Amino acid sequence: MMNSLFAGVSGLRNHQIRMNVIGNNIANINTTGFKSSRVTFEEALAQTIRAPRGPDGLVGGINPMQSGLGVSVSSIDSIFTQGSLESTGQVTDLAIEGNGFFILSDGENRYYSRAGVSQFDSEGNLVNPNNGFIVQGMLADSNGEITSGSPITDITLPFGQKEKARATTSVELAGNLDASPAKQTWTASSAFTDQGEIAAAASEINNLDQVTVDLTDGDQIVISGTKPSGSIVSAQFTYGAGNDGTTLGDLLTAINTAYGGDAVASLDASGNLVLTDAASGTSSSSLSLSFTDVDGDGSALTLPEFTKTVTGKDTTHATSIAVYDSLGEKHTVTITFTKSDTTDALWTWEAALSGNEQILQGDTDGDGQDEQLNSGTVRFNTDGSFKDFDYTDYADGTEVTSFVFSPGNGAENVSIEFSPGERDEFGGLIQFASSSAASAESQNGYGEGSLSTISIDETGQISGLFTNGVTRTLAQIALADFNNPSGLLRTGDNLYQASANSGQAVEGVAGTNIQGRIISGSLELSNVDLAQEFANMIIAQRGFQANARVITTTDDLLNEVNNLKR
Questions:
Q1: CATH 2.60.98.20 placement within the chain
Q2: Out of 198-202, 283-287, 395-399, 470-474, which region has the weakest mean confidence (pLDDT)?
Q3: Distances (CA, A) of 462 to 136, 151, 457, 458, 474
């Protein structure tokens, strides 16, 4: 009879333990990174009243007779399921999605946590603000590199650190250079005809169908307009064998003389008078012809008006970019591209500076005089892809591979290699029949800067953004994982320590040997399922009540036994 009393007591005691665990779970419903626990029960030792016996001859076997001695706690397990993530917007708030634990140190011991609340202290240490334990990771070297095998240590960031200036060594070139620069052209609105046939340069003006009354010596054709530069053209063609001539060819000669070679007049195959600029590019050229009957004898010539049939397009294109010297001072480099008049796929380039800089010089043609080494050529393939980019070479055969100038401020010479793209590809400079848009897209230099802000990516890599625009890796947060996370010891403050049954910590980086990722600006919430905990609470309550009834019923039975002596 006492066994039932002790069994009931064990039931009360162990259901109370379950209630303690449930209560702790519910109390930590809003604890960052908290992992809930569960209680499992097992039967306590059983008292054997009769041993089992196997079949023997004609007598069958019998089962054992055993009476249990109550219940005991089999285990209290930590449940490491993923908790929900809450966005906080604080860059140093960190959550782990997947496996892994943050590693923290108090200087002597290492602790592990899923709670990623962290801040920087006055010395730049990334710490748990509750206890000051420092988050562990790998530190980058001065070049922003984290070498293989870097030790895991305290993460300390160099706030206030200066990023030294870096001289530009490369400039990336990309974009289109117009394959079809145009010479501005003016064409007569009607063709000249000679007795119904297309007129030629040798046609006599008085034989033209446009002449209704023959011209006489002294009559004039006034030539007016503008040159490509915009300067005024004003001249006269005086008719007559003793004057400027009597043929269309003589008129063309007079027009060409008036334009001084800046534009050329000719007759096309249809007999139209055409004025074409001598060079491609934007132009202000124009042409107008008018007839004057000087002696008033009634001579009459109908001259056409002229319309712009081709608009001039530039053969040059310029782009500028700011580069830096070793002291961090800016210098503006302007690169001007000029299309060849003789070779369709060939351009020349020239680099210039706008300040007091001195471009490196050398004797490129062997004449004993130094020339500036700031030019070269660009060639393209017939499909518009980039072919090659050359620098001006020394006469002695020494190849020039970069544009070099002295900053003029005590800094080292700046040597810049222009990068126009891969040969036979379309990723850099290209040449198509559309407006030129080539530009110096980027360069790799920068001035001095100070660390201003940081960012943390999914692998835990901490990158610093400096005031000069440079982004450099500063450190990387380390994670740890265990063969048996449920074997970890809880030490309070959302921290765990390794135990004999958790296994040794496997330390590494998120996304590589640790199958998890770090989410910056978020925190992992508790994984407590409140509905499940309330259900467990009801079950624990019923178990406690039932065991209490066992005790009270056993007490009544004991009272009856005591009453037998009466």
A1: 170-179+314-447
A2: 395-399
A3: 12, 16, 7, 10, 6
